[in-house]
Amino acid sequence: AMKNAVPQAASLLLEKLLLLVHVRALPAGTDGGEPPPAAPGYYDTSCFQRGDLLEVPRTLFVHFGIYLGENRVAHLMPDILPAFTDDRQQIQRVVTNKRLILGVITKMASIRVDTVEDFAYGGSILVNHMDRRFKDQVLGSEEAARRAEKLVGATAYSLLWNNCEHFVTYCRYGAAVSFQTDKFCETVKMIIRDQRSVLASVLVGLASIVCLGLAPSTTLPTIFITFFLWMAG
């Protein structure tokens, strides 16, 4: 039971990290470069109204945006490229996994406007699905759209405090919250409370020492992370 529990705990934590990072799986055969966009007109936008909150459920996460009308969606995406260039044509290209991951690491993002096809990336779209959670807090559709438009541009990024869900809930409900963040924090608490995570951290640390050699960059994280999990449990 112990042998199975350790990798399960590590896998669960990785899953929740990916959930917040919003990494999009690329089709087979791609190398992390620019993915092929969905065909124009793939989605019927006639049922969308300006100011609608759009959700695209994925296997490990949900991505959010605000519909602006005319097949345009404002959404927050981690992106490193704006730090290196002001070329709007270059920045406006579909964000690749490499740009996205580097944006997460450097805590850089942009609130950008894309077509529905590029925003949804082939996934199914839910419309105003979160309204039931906020009831009387829903702002007017035009107010939500205007809020989104005012925020378009570069912004800081945080997995826990400023992700795409915070952006849309601020625009449509006036309060920046993230239920995905709450789930992630609960998962972290669960793993910290489970003392088997201490063993998992030791095994990962020893594996890194074996692979990379005995050095401060491998031994110190192993010691401190294990000690932290032990004391916090």
Automatic annotation (TrEMBL):
One of its GO terms (molecular function) is phosphatidylcholine-retinol O-acyltransferase activity. It is found in: Cytoplasm, Perinuclear region; Endoplasmic reticulum membrane; Late endosome; Rough endoplasmic reticulum. The chain crosses the membrane at residues 198-231. It catalyses: 1,2-dioctanoyl-sn-glycero-3-phosphocholine + all-trans-retinol--[retinol-binding protein] = 2-octanoyl-sn-glycero-3-phosphocholine + all-trans-retinyl octanoate + apo--[retinol-binding protein]; 1,2-dihexadecanoyl-sn-glycero-3-phosphocholine + all-trans-retinol = all-trans-retinyl hexadecanoate + 2-hexadecanoyl-sn-glycero-3-phosphocholine; all-trans-retinol--[retinol-binding protein] + 1,2-dihexadecanoyl-sn-glycero-3-phosphocholine = apo--[retinol-binding protein] + all-trans-retinyl hexadecanoate + 2-hexadecanoyl-sn-glycero-3-phosphocholine; 1,2-diheptanoyl-sn-glycero-3-phosphocholine + all-trans-retinol--[retinol-binding protein] = all-trans-retinyl heptanoate + 2-heptanoyl-sn-glycero-3-phosphocholine + apo--[retinol-binding protein]. PANTHER family: LECITHIN RETINOL ACYLTRANSFERASE. This is Lecithin retinol acyltransferase. Transfers the acyl group from the sn-1 position of phosphatidylcholine to all-trans retinol, producing all-trans retinyl esters. Retinyl esters are storage forms of vitamin A. LRAT plays a critical role in vision. It provides the all-trans retinyl ester substrates for the isomerohydrolase which processes the esters into 11-cis-retinol in the retinal pigment epithelium; due to a membrane-associated alcohol dehydrogenase, 11 cis-retinol is oxidized and converted into 11-cis-retinaldehyde which is the chromophore for rhodopsin and the cone photopigments. Its main location: cytoplasm. GO terms for biological process: retinol metabolic process; visual perception; vitamin A metabolic process. Belongs to the H-rev107 family. It is an enzyme of class 2 (transferase). It is a single-pass membrane protein. GO terms for cellular component: endoplasmic reticulum membrane; late endosome; perinuclear region of cytoplasm; rough endoplasmic reticulum. The gene is Lrat. Residues 1-25 form the signal peptide. Keywords: Acyltransferase, Cytoplasm, Endoplasmic reticulum, Endosome, Lipid metabolism, Membrane, Sensory transduction, Signal, Transferase, Transmembrane, Transmembrane helix, Vision. Residues 53-180 form the LRAT domain.
